[in-house]
Structure formats: structure tokens, C-alpha cells
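Batch 3, record 17
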Amino acid sequence: MAGSIALPQPRAVSIPGRILALLPGVLLLAAVGYAGKFIEQSMARYGKAHHLVLPNIEFVLWAILIGLVISNTVGVPALFRAGVATYEFWLKVGIVLLGARFLVGDVLHLGGISLGLVFVEITLSLIFMTLLGRAFKLKPKLTTLLAVGSSICGVSAIIATQGAIDADEEDSSYAIAAILALGAISLFAFPLIGHTLHLSDRGYGLWAGLAVDNTAEASAAGALYSDAAGKVAVLAKTCRNAMIGFVVLGYAIYWASKGKAAKVQNKAAFLRSKFPKFVLGFLVVSLVASIGLFSKPQITAIGNLSRWAFLLTFAGVGLRTNLREMLKQGARPFLVGAIGEVAIAGLTLGLVYGAVQVFNL
Amino acid sequence: MPQSPVPSKSRISVDTWAVIIALLAVVLVRTGILKDIPW
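Prediction for the assembled complex:
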């Protein structure tokens, strides 16, 4: 993956061998994540013991910062890379488990609002990014990749679209690098703007879920604000992820009609293959929790497992972000992405302000 | 004309593995094998 550290797949053939190859990196994720948690708790204890008012900096930020420092100074050694790449796996595990902390009523209410906003956001973002790409004379397929990456779900959407429209590896690398670099900036910019505007947890979570591209960064940007905002950000982002199949299918049909991509023979199978399965897992767990199949301590236990999975994810966000590698990818795609991101962030903020007023969030 | 973008291989994706592992954890908590997970 360009723009981030190289993520080679383990070459071992047996399942125990593969797990063994992942172990060092997973342990590194755990160590970095736990160090973040340890610093947060130590600061709180120190402040209490010495009657000092220290800023409450969440473990999320510490884990990301420690990861960033390692990745951008000594680098992540090859031994750890395959395991570090599992952060997306832990993200999906965390999202499915988070379903236990949502009642179906909440999912339908907030998810319904999110879906409506997602529809508007995706439509306007795709149009805007396409026009912007043309104005900056980017290659049409690179423009498509940037549009999909910034309107739906970052890297996953770019990879799915690259295969569907037969885009160049190079275009895909540019788009991924731009989206990852902008995601890293969002992590720090969004909480600052949210606090400045005094957004509510739900309003901010909705905004982060709608505007931050990658699912890992959107979850982290939400969690950096508050636990409640993190939950809403994941829900809103999950709604956005659910749309990936439809948008990628639309682009595949468009490029096929121009004779520049393969024809989609079976649209239902295409949609099924692109639909993120963790969205279904999240809904199943939420449904099971809503019918009262779990006791309160069990919901707490599942919620805590979800937090541990997210802890590994947030450590991975920092560890896979190599700023120098991203900057090497060139300025124009980044500039188009940056202008688009700012516009989309402004647009979604307006949408969220409207939704907060109308639905009293 | 290139091949259809629908993957023909039926390998379990990372996405599906994540759902399987998460649901397994939920079952373990429900049956009481996993309990009192600290945070």
C-alpha cells in the first residue's frame, strides 16, 4: 500500500505458521495501545495525587502519537509489519462487538438519520470531487478513485474501485496516499474544531462519521472527542460503508460503458461481494442485545472486548502512517484531496447542524 | 475485454473472519466462558 508502510502478507502456508508470523506485530499493537492507556491513567492519577488540573488526554491520542513516532523515526521492522497490518481486522471485530452497546431503536433512529445524510453527502461529494479533478486536469480514473475515497470509505473503497474499473496501480497509490495523509490531519483537526464549536457528542460523532474518510480514522476521531461521540461516529461511518457496493457498481458500469473496464455480468453477486460483512455482524449483535439475550455484566464484558479491539486499531493507525512516504506521492492529488476534504467537512458540518436542530440530537 | 470484477474464488475474507471471531467472542461471553473483562 503506497503512502503507508509496506504490508507484506506472511508467506507461511500452514495456519499455525501464519498466526505465528502475525504474532510479533499484534504484540507491538498491544504494547503501543496499552502504553497509551497507561499514560492516560498515570496522568489522571498524578493529577489527582498532586491536586493538579491536567488535561484529560485519552489513550487514543497517546496510542496514535506513539505509533506515529515509531513509524516516522526508527520505522516498523519487517518482522512486525504483517501483524501491524491486522489493525483493520481488529477494527472490524471492534465494530461488530460495539453492536452490543446499541439498541436496535438507536440504530434505526440514528442510523436512519445517518443514512439520509450519507446519501446527500455521497452525491454532493462525488459531483464536487469529479469537477475538482477535471479542473486540476487529473487523470479521469485517478479522479474517480479520489472521489470514491473521499466520499465513502477511504482505502477500502479505493481498492474495491481500482479492481472494478481497471485503474492503474499508480493511480490507486496516489489516491490512497492522499486519503491517508488527509485522514491523519483529520485526527487532530476534527476534535479541535468540534470543541471550538461546542458540538454535542452526537452531533460531533455524526460529523466525524460522515466526513472522515477511513473507518479507522473516523472511529479514532470520534473516540478522541468522547466515548459517546466515538460510538455515534462508528455508526455513521458504518452507514457510509454500507453504500460502497452501490457506488463502486455505478462506476464499474460507467467505465464499462466507455469500454475502459470489464462488464459487470452479475450485479447482485457484485453487490454481495462488495458489501462489508462487518455491517451485518454489527446489526446481528445489536439485535441480539436488544431482545435481552445478554445480562448487564455480559453487555459490559462485550463492550470492553470492543474497546480492546479498538485499542489495537488505534495503535495501528499511528504505526502504519509514514508521513515522508505519503509526501513522496506528489502534490496535485493531495491538493485535490485536501480541497475536497475541506469542502466535504464544511458541507457535512452544515448537514449535521441542520440534523441536530431538526431531530433534536 | 477484461474479466468481470466479481471475484470467483471462495476464500474467506478478512471481513468475514472478523465477524466470525467477534461472534465467537459474543458466544463465549453469553455462555459464561468469558466474563469480567476489565478495561
